[in-house]
Amino acid sequence: MNKGHIRNLDWAGLETEIRGMGQPPFRAKQVFQWVQQKGVSHWEEMTNVPKTIRDQLAVKYELAGLSVLKRDVSKLDGTVKYLLGLKDGETVETVLMAYEEQEGRDRKTVCVSTQVGCPLGCSFCATGKWGFIRNLEVNEILGQVLAVNQDLSRKGEAPVTNLVFMGMGEPLLNYDHLIKSLRILNHPDGLNISLRRISVSTSGIVPGIRRLAQEGMPLVLAVSLHAPNNELRDRLMPINRRYPLEELLDACYYWVSETNRRITFEYILLAGINDNLQQARELAELLKGLLANVNLIPYNGVAEAPFRQPSRNRITAFRRYLEEHGVTAVVREERGSDIAAACGQLRGQEMRGKDDYQI
């Protein structure tokens, strides 16, 4: 018998399963908390759930989490990068970034992957260089967050507070599993992470943006732009040939009109490619009138890509031009530059047979 994974069940699915056993609804709540909040990997850990229920579930469902194959900590800023093993032998990357918020509270942000590899082939991205393998299941998406929480718990630290779906893969090409994962992560008997503390990034999947706008989720939408015109974006991001800037911007206006929420545009600055003031002018014109802000991201070098990071003066001039022309722009702080923290780099090293990292 092929077993499913119990973490693929949302609240309604698990409640239906428990009711089908002739058990009262409160048992579903207990199991859901063990599975989706505490992230247990063994049925016997569910100490307040009768053995008869555990045994029946074990016949139909797997419970194991993801295995941590490698874990590296940045000496510069404490960023932690994980290489996580999946049941079929594939791997995904997850990154933990810690920030200090006002009043001394810590914000712990996890960068979550949604696919093994990526089908989009952006020229500056390490993930796409290794091709696309498959979509992640719901349990594999959730398992990344739970693996990080367990690591934090072992050190006596508070759990994850924020999520960014900006890891390996294109989230909106794994739409149904993404949405189901978001609802489980937000559930009060799960990790109870506010949707306002969750960002979903897309390279510009226009139908997915429009569909997401209808979900009623007050999350942050981040659009990877990286070029202010179709000619350059076609070269950097092949997806632009399918959904050119005119269609993408139309979908972005639709998002704002339906959700009344600002869009964040991600713009990786590549020396000599997209970082001059003429391109800053084009970008300001492109975004004029749209409820949006721009995250400028100095390029984090990838061995497989022939790009460089612009000088600090060049980055500052680009940001200043946008600000002076009515576009809110910030330069994103570089994190984990000493541990290959850009998406796909650690998995790429693993695939090349390197073993530079230790748990």
Give a quick precis of the structure.
This protein has eleven helices and 14 strands. With 359 residues, the chain is an alpha/beta fold.
Can you give keywords for this protein?
359 residues, alpha/beta, DNA polymerase, domain 1, TIM Barrel, two-stranded parallel ribbon, 14 strands, elongated, disordered C terminus
3D structure, described in words:
Helix 9 (277-287) links the parallel strand 12 and strand 13 (292-298). This protein has 11 helices and 14 strands. It has helices at 11-20, 25-37, 51-60, 138-154, 175-186, 206-213, 230-236, 245-259, 277-287, 312-324, 345-351; strands at 4-5, 61-62, 67-73, 80-85, 91-100, 106-111, 115-117, 132-135, 162-165, 198-202, 220-224, 263-269, 292-298, 328-331. It is 34% helix and 20% strand. A 10-stranded mixed β-sheet has the order 3-4-5-6-9-10-11-12-13-14. A two-stranded parallel sheet has the order 1-2. The chain has 2 domains: 4-62, DNA polymerase, domain 1; 67-351, TIM Barrel, CATH 3.20.20.70. The chain has 359 residues and is an alpha/beta fold.
* Sequence of secondary-structure elements: EHHHEEEEEEEHEHEHEHHEHEHEH
Give the biggest sheet. 10 strands, mixed
Structural category is alpha/beta
What is the count of distinct domains? 2
Number of strands: 14
CATH-level-4 superfamily name of the largest domain: Aldolase class I
CATH architecture of the largest domain: Alpha-Beta Barrel
Which radius of gyration do the C-alpha atoms yield? 21 Å
- Give the count of helical stretches: 11
> In one word, what is the shape?
elongated
In round numbers, the mean pLDDT is 92
Low-confidence stretches: 351-359
The share of residues in extended strands comes to 15-25%
Cα-to-Cα separation, first versus last residue: 35 Å
CATH class designation of the largest domain: Alpha Beta
Helix % is: 25-40%
State the oligomer: single chain
